[in-house]
Queue: 2 jobs
Job 1
Amino acid sequence: MMRFILVMSIMTTLLPASDLDAAREHYRQAVAAAFGIAAAKITVQPVHVGLPDNPYEPLQTGDLFALRADWPGADPGPAGFASAKGQVAFAKHPDKVKTLLLACEVRDEKKMLPLDDIVRRLAWVYRGAGEPVEGANHKAHVVRDETGVTVVYYVRQAGQTGAIRFQSVTVQLKVDGTCVTRIEKVNAELP
């Protein structure tokens, strides 16, 4: 009887208990591969769901859960998204945020999430770039052309000296399926 309980205990720790658990494991493995870290050292947030003011839940997009990976020396670590099916999106992933952009339906103007919601999700992934802001001549926008779909938004980043700089974040999903991100300094001051 004791062996049966031990075997069942081991089996239940190996099997994901929910879609979130499966997504967390896929994210852990993808981050471990991208950063060359042992997966066992990585903790994927959220560990406890249903807490008040949980920043992860409002960002969920379709099957994609908002996640963050932490390990000794990288806390907070990379933020991104993953699904129980193994779809993963984060800045250093080989496909970048392609999975996220597809889940946001950016290729279809009629089905696309509101731009503010897309920017909030991209800002989660590229949070190191700064906090999203808008100015009179610097508003988030989407461009669709023969090269693909491009989402552009602007961020404010405070430096350690208190200096503030403004940057544009440009994320393009090309027609061939590749995803490219550029973060560049904005020459004009935003209000």
Job 2
Amino acid sequence: MLTARVDHLQSRYDGLRSRGYGATSRRLKMVSLALADAKDDVFRHDVAADCTRQPARTHWVPRLLTRGAAAPTGSRG
């Protein structure tokens, strides 16, 4: 539902731009603001859904430290 609204507003925005409406156009500004609000709604909905699905992490391990853990050490020869 939310992504359909974003898609609709994006196509409307693209259509206005292709017909020559510029950045000073009131109509384009209104569509642009509505598009930004819709994208914000989608982001907030996704974050809220993500927070309710996943349990909280008890600790955080940086990925950079875990990448080289299995690499062999020593000299090649």
